[in-house]
Write a structure and sequence with these properties.
- The complex is a heterodimer of chains A (about 350) and B (about 900).
- Chain A has helices at about 10-20, 35-40, 75-80, 80-85, 90-95, 100-105, 110-115, 120-125, 165-170, 190, 275-280, 290-300, 310-330; strands at about 5, 25, 45-50, 60, 65-70, 175-180, 185-190, 210-215, 230-235, 245-255, 255-265, 270-275.
- Chain A has about 350 residues and is of the alpha+beta class.
- Among the domains of chain A are: about 1-55, Uridine Diphospho-n-acetylenolpyruvylglucosamine Reductase, domain 2 (2-Layer Sandwich), CATH 3.30.43.10; about 225-330, CO dehydrogenase flavoprotein, C-terminal domain (Enolase-like, domain 1, 2-Layer Sandwich).
- In chain A, a hairpin with a 5-residue loop joins strand 4 (about 60) and strand 5 (about 65-70).
- The longest helix of chain A is centred in the C-terminal third of the chain and has 20 residues, at about 310-330.
- The N and C termini of chain A lie far apart (about 55 Å).
- The model of chain A is unreliable at about 345-350 (pLDDT under 50).
- In chain B, a hairpin with a 2-residue loop joins strand 28 (about 715-720) and strand 29 (about 725).
- Chain B folds into four domains: about 1-180, Roll (Ubiquitin-like (UB roll)); about 195-290 and about 350-435, 2-Layer Sandwich (Aldehyde Oxidoreductase, domain 4), CATH 3.30.365; about 440-610 and about 745-900, 2-Layer Sandwich (Aldehyde Oxidoreductase, domain 4), CATH 3.30.365.10; about 615-735, Aldehyde Oxidoreductase, domain 4.
- In chain B, the strands form eight sheets. A seven-stranded mixed sheet of chain B has the order 8-10-6-18-15-16-17.
- With about 900 residues, chain B is α+β, with helices and mostly antiparallel strands.
- The chains are: A alpha+beta (about 350), B alpha+beta (about 900).
- Chain A: It comes from Belnapia mucosa.
Chain lengths: ~350, ~900
């Protein structure tokens, strides 16, 4: 690990001004950053530790019915918060399907948004990677790329964003609150992460020194609580990243879909909200034909970036599965294996 | 200065705020019970509680633990529930190698603090982030659920004299694994030891030159030496076979895989860690690699090593009868092709150890499965006589075959010898994965036939095993596979060949089963299809063909006794019927979930293939009454320390608790051979029995007592039939056993093994035919072990073997350079292992101690084929590219549907 300065600011303003110095990085729980520093992928010259900042660790009910989640709230604390869990069950399910108990006890909400890709070429400093070393090329193209992007990728980069948490968040219209040298601002989560284009090294809209301070979910997001699921296909039962995943949320009135939300994970460099598919669902009966059509629309633009054509069909199927499970109703208690396609469910897979 | 409360006591630590809590605990506070498995939050071995919540200590910067309450394994016994949990682990055999155990215990404490009587799902959720490679998790889950029962219960008594064999005795070496005292390779080096850090090739194939390292040494104070090929005092080569020392300690201008060692940095820890690889004066000329066996076998392919011009390391063959003619005459014929992947051992303890020079001798302390082989390698690279080398195995945090090859040992010995300092090393996880041996990827083509009654007629088997860049155990694999290619069945006509082919991949070596698990996948798939073709139930088909005592094998060996496969199958029959009925009922409901039940059998030759593999055990009784069992068999978690003690105790006629254990050290114990080939219970067990009987004879002779004389030992006084026996000189019982075999001839005919383990396993599962995922529901395993010396530990081997079989079948695929960590390389977690029912069949082996054979490898072999059999049953799909990841399952389903 390289040598670096360590700064422990006492306020957000101090943090922002400390991090404005080039070469700085914010340190939250460090579950991702410290690992990347160890393997030489991240080499910050100074670490600005956020762990002693006051005021970023609350889960706050807003007067309008929404919720504000401080950036330092731990994943486990958010997932276990009874009020939050009841109103935003798909978000809790996604949180509990991610990483391991140890990591969820440490990892923060803000850090989750800013996770770096698990692309093995990004993680291997001996490989070419435009995201890590702009202009060096992309060894994932033509390499081992079974798990890479099928939506929104470019010739420069085919990596995916690894977060589970962000998938239902983007579906539910979350907003990111940001502090920075130029003052505070807000960005919808859907616009927060950037697709690679020609500049894959730019992963989010954050300018140097900007700090995520909170996430907000709007009141209307809680309106989906009765029909909201997150489903994740992974290659072992727990502690594995998604091959593909989907968050689906429906408002069903008089046997028809009054509102729909659908987002996909593991398919692109950002959590992928499928707005056209959502629009197609509105007014339809919540049945297999409607879900099939929505899944087709959601993946209409997909194309393989390598040896991963199978992911396109899998993504359609996981979208259908999530919609079907959401239509069947949010279970009263989260299944023992959150987000597992095999979890026992009301409505049944057999029928 | 940072203040922490560690296990209730305040500690003030002088370390930078970004120091990892794991490092602070281990190096700063000496609490080495917290283990490092990956240093990246992927394995959970370093799990501790911080303010009651489980976290990976390797990911906690010290600054974030300021003022926190930290609980580690060392503090567990002070908490009543913690102590109860330790007792539960001991009673249920929940620790094997013990390396993940501290992390498991602490993760379990998180849930036990909230729910003293947790449900299974709660326990699964709490343990989901701790990887265990030994146990298969089931006994751990049970121990956590049952911990509350041990709150007030006294510890179970040890078996009485004469009652040890057959007892479900807790591990004789169990407690240090539960309280953090056990010292593994990285735990016990002297404080002033220098550190060694190898520099490895990032290329699969390249030439290189290493320039002048003096400027590097000058730039890094504390860096003492850069060791390279020219520094090796003896032979710069090692390897398993006495005549194949093809792997250099330090490469000589040419690297053959990503992981070959170019040189090693020796100095203070800070100094060796501060060096960046780019700083080294290394010039590379990258060469095109031979990436797979097809390329290596192609006409005109360059030879990896001069001595194997066609890149074929070894060819193993078995020929018996006329397979081609018999196949042509068969009523039913099935054939297929299969391809398996590299599989990583993924022991949770990375390779580690230390060495020191003591006068003109060298002493190496390391995690190993084979101390006497290490001794020979260290003597070879130092150019020293064997007597000048001492190997002291540390506790071994899992091996599975991967620690049969040397790793840290030669380099540490060279460094300590030349620098006359203690030198230590611990591989990082990615280094461990990049450099260590793997399970051979196999490409198998096979054809088999049967007659109208379902009797097997013939088998043709062709296996190409990617043996990687160096020989390692490749010849053993190529030799063992053809001898096992029929599986445990009567097949009159056989033509079988396996070739180990050199490539620029990591060396493939020994991994639980030596190539047999891959072959079993092909065999068992053929039997299923032949059974279907003949219209015979899949279990009954296997029973028709099962080897029985008196049958001849394909190598011409007549199995004299202890052939318990028919008994295994008969024991499974009621479960088979019930599970199939259950699956049929579930399938009747329709939907995308398809349920299936599969079956597979295996046999496994215990010990080396057609080669001598003796073991010697020694028991001494001193005049002061000290009874010592000198046991050189390394317990890597499988339980040999306990099992051999049980055997020795009953042979001698004293309780197991009467013995002092002298383990492993090559200065203090005789050569027991390596811990491999499932041989320690059978071979060393028989030697232990002989040693016990010999000492007993000596005692009875001296006491002038009859053969039924009753021994007792208390307060240093031995009595025989109640009469004290005074000794002027020590008595010794020496036992040696070498299983009788006959080497295989050019047609693979001979007696390769003195005995075989047999087994059959059933897997019940559901396939999600939309998503391609598999959910295992149940595995029932019937194993003929001859005699279960310790049924608790036998079950532990079965469950752990099954977990590794699940990994092989469903998720494990090592890609060199791409999956060198434990989040991209997936091994089963607690949720991936279903309920397992073990049925122990005891068809005694006359040569074995009290009838015992072996279980280590047999446990793994049938699992993957049983899973594929169940997928076939559920969907009709044939899995022939392994592991069966979701996309491959979907492809197999599509292929089957396409075929109509």
């Amino acid at each position: 690990m390289n040598r670096f300065d360590y700064i422990r600011p006492g306020t957000v303003a101090e943090a922002v001004s400390a991090a404005a110095v080039p070469g700085s990085a914010y340190l939250a729980a460090g579950t991702n950053l410290l690992d990347l520093m160890k393997i030489g992928v991240a080499r910050p010259e100074r670490l600005v530790d956020l762990n002693y900042l006051p005021g970023l660790d609350a889960i706050e009910a807003l007067p309008d019915g929404g919720v504000r989640i401080g950036a330092r709230v731990r994943n486990a604390d958010l997932a276990q918060d009874p009020g939050f869990r009841r109103r935003f069950p798909a978000v809790a399910e996604a949180l509990l399907s991610g990483a391991s108990g140890q990591l969820r006890n440490m990892a923060t909400v803000g850090g989750n948004l800013l996770q770096r890709t698990r692309c093995p070429y990004f993680q291997d400093t001996a490989s070419a990677c435009n995201r890590r070393a702009p202009g060096s090329g992309c060894d994932a193209r033509g390499g081992e790329n079974r798990l890479h992007a099928v939506l929104g990728w470019s010739e420069a980069c085919i990596a995916t964003h690894p977060s589970d948490f962000c998938v239902p968040l983007v579906a539910l219209g979350a907003v990111v609150e940001i502090a920075g040298p130029a003052g505070p601002r807000e960005v919808p989560l859907a616009d927060f992460h950037l697709l690679p284009g020609a500049t894959p090294e730019r992963e989010s809209v954050l300018a140097p020194g900007e700090l995520v301070t909170a996430l907000r979910l709007p009141a209307e997001a809680a309106g989906f609580a009765a029909h909201a699921r997150y489903v994740k296909l992974r290659e072992r039962t727990s502690y594995a990243f998604a091959v593909v995943s989907a968050a689906a949320a429906l408002r069903i009135e008089d046997g028809r879909i009054a509102a729909a939300r659908l987002a996909l994970g593991g398919v692109a460099a950002k959590p992928w909200r499928a707005e056209a598919a959502e629009a197609a669902l509105v007014g339809a009966a919540p049945d297999a034909a409607a879900f099939q059509q929505a899944a087709e629309i959601a993946l209409a633009e997909a194309r393989p970036s390598g040896d991963n054509a199978f992911k396109i069909e899998l993504a359609r199927r996981i979208a259908r599965r999530a919609l079907r499970l959401a239509a069947a109703g949010t279970p009263e208690r989260l299944p023992a294996l959150p987000a597992s396609p095999f979890a026992p469910l009301s409505g049944g897979l057999h029928g | 200065m940072t203040r922490l409360i560690v296990n209730g006591a305040e500690q003030v630590v002088a370390a930078p705020p970004e120091a990892r809590l794991s490092t602070v605990l281990r190096d700063g506070l000496g609490l080495t019970g917290t283990k490092i498995g990956c240093d990246a939050g992927d394995c959970g071995a370093c799990t501790v509680l911080v303010d009651g919540a489980q976290v990976c200590a390797c990911l906690v910067p010290l600054g974030q633990a300021e003022g926190a309450r930290v609980q580690t394994v060392e503090g567990l016994a002070a908490d009543p529930m913690g102590a109860a949990l330790q007792h539960a682990f001991q009673a249920h055999g929940a620790a094997q190698c013990g390396y993940c155990t501290p992390g498991m215990l602490m993760a379990a404490m998180e849930v036990l603090q909230a729910s003293p009587r947790p449900a299974e799902a709660q326990v699964m959720a709490a343990l989901g982030g701790v990887l265990c490679r030994c146990t298969g998790y089931r006994k751990i889950v049970t121990a956590v659920m049952e911990a509350h029962r041990f709150l007030d219960a006294p510890a179970a008594p040890l078996p009485e004299a004469g009652q040890a064999v057959g007892a479900r005795m807790g591990r004789a070496d169990g407690w240090p694994k539960l309280d953090g005292r056990e010292a593994y390779g990285a735990d016990a080096a002297p404080a002033d030891a220098l550190w060694l850090r190898p520099v490895r090739s990032p290329h699969a194939h390249a030439r290189f030159t290493l320039g002048d390292t003096a400027p590097l040494l000058a730039r890094h104070p504390g860096l003492e030496r850069v060791l390279a090929a020219a520094d090796v005092p003896g032979r710069n080569g090692y390897g398993i076979y006495p005549d194949i020392k093809d792997q250099a300690v330090f490469a000589e201008g040419l690297v053959r895989y990503r992981g070959d060692v170019v040189c090693a940095l020796v100095g203070t820890r800070e100094a060796v860690e501060a060096v960046r690889v780019e700083e080294l004066p290394l010039d590379w000329e990258v060469l095109p690699p031979l990436a797979e066996p097809g390329a290596a076998l192609a006409e005109g392919a360059p030879a990896l090593h001069e001595r194997w011009p066609d890149n074929v390391l070894t060819t193993g063959r078995v020929r018996r009868g006329d397979a081609a003619a018999a196949l042509a005459a068969s009523v039913h014929v099935a054939e297929g092709r299969w391809q398996t992947s590299f599989v990583e051992h993924a022991y949770v303890e990375p390779e580690a150890g230390w060495a020191r020079r003591v006068g003109d001798r060298i002493e190496v302390f390391a995690s190993t499965q084979a101390p006497y082989m290490d001794l020979e390698e260290v003597a070879g690279v130092l150019g020293l006589p064997h007597a000048a080398v001492r190997i002291v195995p540390t506790a071994c945090g899992g091996g599975f075959g991967g620690k049969l090859d040397v790793a840290v040992q030669p380099m540490l010995a060279i460094a300590a010898w030349l620098l006359r300092r203690s030198v230590r090393a611990t591989w990082s996880r990615s280094e461990s994965m990049a450099s260590s041996t793997k399970r051979h990827p196999a490409r198998i083509e096979a054809r088999a036939g049967c007659d109208a009654e379902g009797r097997l007629t013939a088998l043709e088997f062709e296996g190409i095993y990617d043996t990687g860049a160096y020989a390692s155990w490749g010849p053993t694999v190529a030799g063992r596979v053809p001898a096992h290619s029929t599986g445990p069945y009567r097949v009159p006509h056989v033509r079988s060949r396996a070739r180990a082919v050199l490539t620029n991949n990591p060396p493939s070596g020994a991994f639980r089963g030596f190539g047999v698990p891959q072959a079993a996948i092909a065999q068992e798939a053929l039997w299923d299809r032949l059974a279907d073709a003949a219209g015979i139930d899949r279990l009954e088909f296997r029973l028709i063909n099962a080897l029985r005592a008196g049958d001849a094998t394909a190598t011409g060996q007549v199995i004299a006794a202890s052939a318990g496969l028919p008994a295994c199958l008969e024991a499974l029959r009621p479960r088979w019927a019930a599970l199939r009925e259950e699956a049929a009922a579930e399938n009747a409901a329709g939907g995308p979930l398809r349920h299936g039940v599969g079956i597979a059998c295996m046999w496994y030759g215990i010990g080396n293939t057609g080669m001598s593999n003796p073991s010697t055990m020694r028991i001494t009784l001193e005049p002061g009454g000290r009874l010592a069992f000198h046991n050189g068999a390394v317990d890597i978690g499988q339980g040999s320390t306990t099992v051999l003690l049980q055997i020795a105790a009953d042979a001698l006629g004293l309780p197991a608790s009467a013995f002092a254990l002298v383990l492993g050290d090559t200065d203090l114990t005789a050569d027991a051979g390596k811990t491999s080939a499932s041989r320690q219970t059978f071979v060393s067990g028989r030697a232990a029995m002989e040693a016990g009987l010999a000492l007993r004879d000596a005692i009875l002779l001296r006491a002038n007592a009859g053969p039924e004389g009753r021994l007792a030992l208390s307060d240093g006084m031995l009595t025989v039939d109640g009469r004290p026996l005074h000794l002027e000189a020590p008595l010794e019982g020496l036992g040696r056993f070498d299983p009788p075999t006959v080497p295989l001839d050019a047609d693979g005919q001979g007696v390769p093994y003195a005995t075989y383990g047999f087994a059959a396993q059933i897997a019940a599962l559901a396939v999600d035919t939309e998503l391609g995922t598999i959910r295992l529901k149940r595995i029932v395993a019937a194993h003929d072990v001859g005699r279960a010396i310790n049924p608790l530990l036998v079950e532990g081997q079965i469950e752990g073997g099954i977990a590794q079989g699940i990994g092989l079948a469903l998720m494990e695929e090592y890609l060199p350079g791409r999956t060198e960590n434990l989040h991209d390389y997936l091994i089963p977690t607690v949720g991936d292992v279903p309920a397992i029912e073990s049925i122990l069949i005891e068809d005694p082996e006359p040569l074995g101690p009290y009838g015992a054979k072996g279980i280590g490898e047999p446990a793994l072999v049938p699992t993957a084929p049983a899973i594929f059999s169940a997928i076939r049953d559920a969907t009709g799909a044939e899995i022939n590219r392994i592991p069966a990841l979701p996309h491959r399952v979907l492809e197999a389903i599509r292929r089957k549907e396409g075929a109509g």
